[in-house]
Amino acid sequence: MQRRDALAALCAWPALVKAGPRIAHALLVGVSVYPRLNGKALPGAANDVALMARTVEALGVAPEHLTRLAEDALPPTRARIVEALAALAASARPGDWLLVYFSGHGAQVPARSGREGDGLDEVFLPRDTEAWDPERREVRGALRDKDIAAALHRIRARGAHVWAIFDTCHAADMTRQAGSGRGPLWRFASPADLSIPLPLWLKQWQRGLSASPRRRTATVPGHGQFVGFYAAQEGEGAIEERLPDPAAPAETRLYGLFTHRLALAVPQWLAEPQTATFASLAAGVRQGYGDRPFPTPEFVGALERRPDLGRP
């Protein structure tokens, strides 16, 4: 599908809802404002949530089953994100497909436990993230990968399936481009941004050089399945930049590149319900990147599944 055709197809989403895949519930988190971290605003994250709200509408999510945490809705603080994830688990039923979406800054911080093989934890930064606390040895307000994984595990333990989408960066050797907003912005907070002592961070990072790869997902009998869509590899940065506004293609707005490409791929995916798998959607997203050398999206989990198993 050509880019112009894809943008036009977004306007026809409501007509595709009845025939296409269905998602029972969705949580959309986009963090654009960081009052306690200087210079880390990400305007595109709020736009991402608005675009994803249209996307999940096409996937059959009823308005009452959609939770938005963004500046134009409920501010995405850590407490609200944790509460929303718990509510999602409480509402899950066996066979449901639930979508969880995060847009904002990612970072790597020293792991809490010395037993960690890689020395670092990946974190998502909510709105109320603060600097490194040397006494507690953590970035105050950050959501660690293990916290998010535990929340998603509780959903899957109820027999529901999880589709998690992360338009954020976890690459520690990247720094966000400063400036005017005309060029791309890295969705990454460096150790200096978070006031993490560099010697400590480097010591932990060096431990990770020989670490074995992490397992992203696991199949547990009686639990729902997991599908993960990631904006970049662990060693890459995710970006936001000015891109055509799907609601008004003549204009441009700041969006996460991955979210924008995902939104453009969905109409074609919905138009072919007989062959719609997560793998086919992933292929459409990859195609949308064209000849761009990076970032490189990553897709894991039960990609062969058809997402039309959710309840109507």
From TrEMBL:
Coiled coil: none
Annotated Peptidase C14 caspase domain residues: 25-263
Name of the protein in question: Caspase family protein
